[in-house]
Design goal:
two-stranded antiparallel ribbon, alpha+beta, six-stranded mixed sheet, 4 helices, disordered N terminus, 12 strands, 32% strand
């Protein structure tokens, strides 16, 4: 639903943006996330971005064991009242899901970089997932193409592996899977 002239938006408080205010926003076709109380609005992604998301979803879903489930954006991951993120792809425990969101850190959060989100994905989102205890965080760069994976070790992300182009990346968390960046971007 797009906001129409005359539609009333809820009044914003002068402090940090909250989950309640995020939930009250009208659907305008953009992605809305909260990062430490700051509203981040990004445009719809490009076809190359969505191709990588789709191929990654298929790959992960095919390897996903019972008890876990793979989801695409737009599914809220509520890390706190002032931080609600929507990773491009996530893997969550089935028991951690509610009707409306994932109120616990997912087992894996994946971001596919876009020009408008690159800095948020590589720095801020990564640090928030790390602080929340998300066991694995991956970043896919469709322009290179590449994949970098981090696993949480003693509360800090350590690089689990990286691959560029036709290189193969074998990962064990959140389950065994082999990723080849170029295959995520190849047109059919």
């Amino acid at each position: 639903m797009t906001a129409q002239r005359g539609d009333e938006l809820p009044p914003l408080n002068p402090g940090p943006f909250t989950r309640a205010e995020l939930d009250a926003l009208p659907d305008d076709g953009n992605r809305h996330e909260l990062l430490d109380g700051v509203l981040i609005v990004t445009p719809a992604p490009a076809p190359k971005h969505q191709r990588a998301v789709t191929r990654l979803l298929r790959l992960l879903d095919g390897a996903c064991p019972a008890g876990l489930e793979v989801f695409p954006a737009l599914l809220d991951v509520a890390l706190s009242d002032d931080t609600v993120l929507e990773p491009d792809v996530l893997v969550a425990r089935v028991g951690d899901l509610t009707e409306g969101d994932v109120p616990k850190p997912p087992q894996l959060a994946v971001e596919v970089l876009s020009p408008s989100t690159r800095r948020y994905d590589l720095l801020l989102k990564r640090s928030r997932y790390e602080a929340a205890g998300t066991p694995s965080y991956w970043v896919v760069d469709p322009d290179e193409p590449s994949v970098i994976a981090w696993d949480l070790r003693d509360g800090v992300y350590a690089e689990a592996g990286r691959a560029v182009g036709d290189e193969s990346l074998q990962l064990d968390a959140p389950f065994e899977v082999r990723v080849v960046p170029a295959e995520l971007l190849s047109a059919r």
